[in-house]
Amino acid sequence: MPAERMLPTTEAEDLLSLVREICQQELAPHASNWEAESRFPREAFRVLGKSGLLGLPYPERWGGGEQPYEVYLQVLEEIAASWLTVAEGMSVHVMSCYALATFGTEQQRESWLPDMIGGELLGAYALSEPQAGSDPAGMTTRAVREGEDYVVNGTKAWITHAGVADFYTMMTKTGEDEVSCLLVPGNSEGLSAAPRERTMGLTSSPVAQLRLEGLRVPVGRRIGEEGSGLRIALSALDSGRLGIAACAVGLAQAALDEAVRYAKERKQFGKPIIQFQGMEFLLADMAAAVESARATYLEAARRRDRGLPFSRQASIAKLVATDAAMKVTTDAVQVLGGAGYTRDFPVERYMREAKVLQIFEGTNQIQRMVIARQLAR
Amino acid sequence: MNIVVLVKQVPDTYSERKLADADHTLDRDSADAVLDEINERAVEEALQLQATHGGEVTVVCVGPDRATDAIRKALSMGADKAVHVSDAALHGSDAIATAKVLAKAVGTVEGVDLVLAGNEATDGRVGALPAMVAELLGLPALTHARKVEVDGSTVKVERETDEGVFFLEASLPAVISVNEKINEPRYPSFKGIMAAKKKPVSTLAIGDLGVDAGEVGLGGSWTQVTEAAPKPPRAAGQRVEDEGDGGVKVAEYLVGQKLI
């Protein structure tokens, strides 16, 4: 049963129907096989791009859809319900355009942004390093100015779309305590991807370290002032967290739908197992978790759309939605019993995929820290 | 070249479809309504012809108020404008009554060179409507097209049926119905969705077309559904126990059914 939504406009309703159609035709039929084969669905992003879905929250003047986060996130949620790798990739792409869209000069935006959000290109976001995860200020990647170029050396880690991205929004030190943001073309010399990480879930999504060896980046590709990189990175975090919250709700909805479908069909003791109270309570709790998580991220999104502070709400949404996804996917395996534990059904994959949602875009421990620090103010 | 595309909103084939108990017309509340897939192909073909030959693409639809959703889909794919005939008097109209209204509605569009339609709707499956509209408009009918080519004032069509392929030619204006092989319809883009809400849709009642209420609806139709029964579920098959001679038993059964 598709999620029941209250959308603000007719065009948002038409947009969601279009997204459901694309999901049904282009994504859902391939997700299980491609995940099993660890194949990256680059073409799927082109289909989304062609329909204008890769730049939804950005202004129309740059070719974006100028949609509120309330709508963009529900699109993301629908895609996540069909194929999390694609939704997560879309969220990463949208966040990788954020620095330029928000902090770039007029000329920089005019030069690059329409192509970046136009649908043909795919972006990546390079902040983490092997020794700098939750603590990004501890990064050691260093850019040294040589004439009109920066020369960058170091290693970035956990980069979604490493090696396949057309551009990287990259944070690097440009001084002892100074981080700057560079927009790096994907085919630059001196930039290479290490072999892919062998991940527990999201196996279609290429994640790898990025080696930067004498990478030359023109100074004109620096976004914002020298030294403003960490501020840029931190300002994008809240929006990125909302993206992951929406992805988590989509995944949980998919797990719930599969569990309900199975519980209606599977008969024991002469009746469908959905009629046993043990199942009823399990499924009801799953539905409550999905719908309350959706309400939580939408509340944060509406605050963002109205220009209100939403940092605490974004952390709460990320925490609540991803913990809900972990619980709901785990319980979906329980509902399907032995069948759920096999790879013939998608719920074991959903359960593996849910785990990473509690880890990336700020671990759920970091989210609690953000929430608690706001309470202590 | 100005093209009219006839489109219909139908119950989604994915949902459970049924007829109303009272008058055996479609129970519209029981199923999600969508633009018929074959119509998406007709719209796609019109847009491709427009890309080569220019002109305007107008969508014409006869259906209740909620058919605006199907019309908007066609507009968001790229059609320029629409004519929507909606009138309570149309409830229960059969194919001929509907064709009369469609022909009049096509008449409100200026300078029509080509009328495109799907060859058969997924709900009623009468499959004769394009030919009826052609007859009423006095235009050549080229049906079941898998390929359409326009050259000046003539149109060439590959007409495909179970028997084979016919190569047809007619002078414009003409009516063409397309089959599933004609093309792969595009997805609308978000820009298309945004543009669609600003495109003109002229909503007409049958009075605006000079059609009398007595000619349409359940009362004005020549045919009426008097009873309907869903297809019975497939009966259980015959079970063969394999005691080393399973293959022989299966073969005997097939011979008995004159299948081998």
From TrEMBL, chain A:
InterPro entries assigned: Acyl-CoA_DH_CS, Acyl-CoA_Oxase/DH_mid-dom, Acyl-CoA_Oxase/DH_mid-dom_sf, AcylCo_DH-like_C, AcylCo_DH/oxidase_C, AcylCoA_DH/ox_N, AcylCoA_DH/ox_N_sf, AcylCoA_DH/oxidase_NM_dom_sf
EC number: 1.3.99.-
The keyword Flavoprotein is assigned to this record: yes
Domain Acyl-CoA dehydrogenase/oxidase C-terminal: 227-375
Residues of the Acyl-CoA dehydrogenase/oxidase N-terminal domain: 9-120
Keyword Electron transport: no
Molecular-function annotations in GO: acyl-CoA dehydrogenase activity; flavin adenine dinucleotide binding
Domain of life: Bacteria
Residues in Acyl-CoA oxidase/dehydrogenase middle domain copies: 124-213
Keywords: FAD, Flavoprotein, Oxidoreductase
Cofactor: FAD
Similarity comment: Belongs to the acyl-CoA dehydrogenase family.
Protein's name according to its UniProt entry: Acyl-CoA dehydrogenase
Lineage, uppermost ranks: Bacteria, Bacillati, Actinomycetota, Actinomycetes, Pseudonocardiales
From TrEMBL, chain B:
Subunit organization: Heterodimer of an alpha and a beta subunit.
Lineage per the UniProt record: Bacteria, Bacillati, Actinomycetota, Actinomycetes, Pseudonocardiales
Keywords noted in UniProt: Electron transport, Transport
Species this protein is from: Kutzneria albida DSM 43870
Transmembrane segments: none
Record-level Gene Ontology MF annotations: electron transfer activity
Pfam families: ETF
Superkingdom classification of source: Bacteria
Protein name: Electron transfer flavoprotein subunit beta
Task performed by this protein: The electron transfer flavoprotein serves as a specific electron acceptor for other dehydrogenases. It transfers the electrons to the main respiratory chain via ETF-ubiquinone oxidoreductase (ETF dehydrogenase).
Domain Electron transfer flavoprotein alpha/beta-subunit N-terminal, residue spans: 23-213
